[in-house]
Amino acid sequence: MRRLRACLGAAAAVTLAAAGTTALVASNASGATSALGNRWYAAAPYLMPLDNDPPDPAAIMDATGLKAFQLAFVLAPNGGGCTPTWGGTAPVSSDTAVQSVINTIRARGGDVSVSIGGYGGTKLGQACSDAASTAAAYQQVITKYGLHAIDFDLEEPEYENTAAVRNEIGAAKILQQNNPGLYVSVTTAGTADGTGWFGKQMLLEAKSQGFTPNNFSIMPFDGGFNGAASQTGALTNFNTILQSTFGWDQATAYAHEGFSGMNGRSDTGEYFSQADFQTVLDYATSHRMDRFTFWSLNRDRQCTPADNGGRTSGTCSSVTQNSWDFAKYSVKFAGATPPTGTPTPTPTPTPTPTSCKTAWSASAVYTAGNEVSYGKHNWKAKWWTQNETPGAAEWGPWQDEGAC
Asked: Catalytic: which of 155, 158, 270, 401?
């Protein structure tokens, strides 16, 4: 998600991390000719523009003052190949839907970064033959949307694949060189010790290639975390890992470090409240960290009684909140002030009845995009599946589309 800071000394890096800089990007194919300050790209929360009941970004911007969005996820085609798609199914080359979302955001003075990878699916680093071809695929995305920022989300199962990680890191370095001012972030799994074995191997790969992004971010959730104290402890430990890997002092390591949280109930049943976000935000700003983001804006709203059910949802947080409350912490990290005034508590809405799709069958074969109903919820297949019960696994092949 960033770049410029790699060639700066420690003192300058810390100064830039605190104040933000403006990326230097010329005009591009999409017509966007100016970039936001780096601090905004560092604060961009994730948004799925095509799945998980996408919220209206204009409404979020009006309510919170947010300017930057991290759009997710670009993957290799589900059927194979080294060309970029949204979610493995929608080719970037012919996309108009995501472009429309980007146009809406830019018309209000905002901008987007695009995240590549994520959990599950086939990544371009796995599908392309080498770093150069991987970079060429990602360059199509940068050119198509006139991007000033990009995020490499390297996690399961890709980051267990040495060749794929080599391709991704090599591609990031090539894009960094070929797109002056491009803001590059690398996001990976977090553990209580900072990051696990595969995350450390990814850092060593970056070191061996001489690649330094604007930041390396960890995701301290889904790993036995319990509130903000466990998350700030992981960030402190990750800082030590960055120091030992790259030979940085503590301040320089923090200037290249980021946090990527999960608002509300995590996939493994952890809960992160607004108070937890404030604590981590205070930690990030006081240590002059480079990034503060979260998964996701699709979840930044209160669940209806029908949606909640004591489980994790892709479309709401499973905690009490007003819509877009968590986005305001990103606004603060960027150095802006969210709109003031006493918010009106979100009423418990009456669920709008949704018709149920055809019932799921254990014997049927389903491919990406197929929809079924099970347990009074509709579900969409993420990839090929047979005899895998919807909702049986946190990261299974089915995406919950809500009650029906």
From this structure: 155
